[in-house]
Amino acid sequence: MPRIVTYNVHRCVGNDRRLDVGRVTEVLAALRPDIVALQELDVGRARTGGVDQAHEIARRLDMACHFNAALTVEEEHYGDAILTCFPERLIQAAPLPGYGRIPQLEPRGAIWVEVEIDGAWVQVINTHLGLVPREQQIQAQWLAGPTWLEHPRCKGPQVLLGDFNATATSVVYRTLTAKLRAARRLVKSREPTSTFPSQMPVLRIDHLFVSPEIQVGKVFAPFEPLTRVASDHLPLVMDFELS
After folding, report:
1. Which CATH architecture has domain 3-242?
2. Radius of gyration for the alpha carbons in the chain, expressed in angstroms and rounded
C-alpha cells in the first residue's frame, strides 16, 4: 500500500531552535514514504547555511525532487517540494494569488507532479496557503478552479495536500471538500491527526484531500520524541490504494 506524507519542515529548524536537515530526514525515513510533500524549505539561503534543503532531503531518501520557489530574493529561494521514489513528471509549479488589500503578505505557491503507481498516473498537488482568512479563501478558490483541480489534465486519481493554515470549520475547507474528499473523514480509526503545534498538537491545519479513485487505508500524525522537536508541525501520513 503506497504511503504519502505532507510535512511543514519549518526550514529544518526545530523547536529547540537547532537547524538540522538530517533530523527532518530521519523523521521521514522512519515513516518509509513513497511520496513526500514538503513546505517551508530553504534553498541556498544564508540563514540556513546555503543548503538546498529540498534536494538534500531527496538525496538522503533516494528520491526524485521537484521544488517550487514561492519566494525568491536574488539567489535565495523558499518554498515547497514534492519528492517520490515512483516514476514522475512535473506538470506545473506556480504562484498562488495574494490579497491585494495587504500587498506585503508572504508569497504563496503550489506544485503539481504526476506520479505513476502500478501503471496509473496520480495527480499530486502540494501547497502552502497564507495566514489571512480572505487570502486563504482566494487561494483555495484558485486551486479549485481551471488552473489546478479543474485543469483538463487533472484527471483520474488526485491528491491535494499541504499546510492550509485552516481548520475543518473554515471556508477554505468547504471550498476544497466541494471538489475532493477529506482523507481524515474516510477512515474509521481514531489515530491522532492534529499536527500543530508539534509539541502539543491541537490544530488540524495540514490536510489531505483525495478524489474517489483514492481508497484511504490510514491517516495519522506520528507524535513521537523526534517528531515533536524536528519541526513546529507534525508530519501527516496517509496510506492508500487506487481503485
Report:
1. 4-Layer Sandwich (3.60)
2. 16
Residue among 216, 128, 207, 211 at smallest CA distance from 173? 207
Contacts of 213 (CB under 8 A, 6+ apart): 156, 157, 158, 242, 243
- H or E element: which one contains 210? strand 206-210
Per DSSP, the residues of 61-127 read HT-EEEEEEEEEETTEEEEEEEEESS-EEEEEEEEEP--TTSTTSPPEEEEEEEEEETTEEEEEEEE
| Mean per-residue pLDDT, 102-112 | 92
For 140-154, the pLDDT digits (tens) are: 999 999 999 999 999
* 11 DSSP 8-state letter: G
**What is the rounded CA–CA span in Å between residue 138 and residue 130?**
10
DSSP state for residue 12 in the 8-state scheme: G
Residues 6+ apart with CB under 8 A from 175: 137, 140, 141, 144
Give one word for 55, left, alpha or beta, with left for phi > 0 and alpha for psi -120 to 50: alpha
- Give me the pLDDT at residue 26, please: 98
> What does pTM read for this prediction?
0.97
Q: Which residues pair with 87 in a beta bridge?
A: none
Question: H helices then E strands: how many in the chain?
Answer: 5, 12
116, 118, 163, 231 from 108: Cα distances, Å: 27, 32, 11, 20
